[in-house]
């Protein structure tokens, strides 16, 4: 039933990691995979060639995301990748076209992907091989990123293109706005006798 060749044994290790990972919480799963202690990996995330993945501190990876690190993948500090995202660092399209889609084909192409620090990759997005995403960039949900993304920019669409650029002053002002709104919401919740929570409590329907 079980094959004993090198490829099968290598794949079986990944299958075992997926199985064990399904029994762990997001912090335990990251620790099991040898990632930084501050990283959180949600359930059903798949990492291809984890030995080629370099991940920074305080990263968050959403459910059902596939991180293909076979061609090299770097993810900077404080970056989040949403649910159902696909990050590719290899392509077999030419092997398919040439009818050479077999294991070990020399028509499989690999190029590294680099995602900077402080990035937000929205859910259901696709990052194609060879792409570099600059620091503090945002990729809107449902985007397909086929070329490099400048730092401090927002991209969206298929193929993704730049819709907005921002600087540190803009980000600082937005952070102050959100902190003030969350503080007001927490104060309202405490006034109602509710236990304080991190972040912002959900808005009450009668307050909207």
UniProtKB/TrEMBL annotation:
Residues 163-190 form a coiled coil. Pfam families: Hexapep_2 (PF14602). CDD domains: LbH_MAT_like. One of its GO terms (molecular function) is O-acyltransferase activity. It comes from the Bacteria. Keywords: Coiled coil, Transferase. The keyword Coiled coil applies. GO terms for cellular component: cytosol. InterPro entries: Hexapep, Hexapeptide_acetyltransf, Trimer_LpxA-like_sf. Belongs to the transferase hexapeptide repeat family. This is Acetyltransferase. It comes from Micromonospora haikouensis.
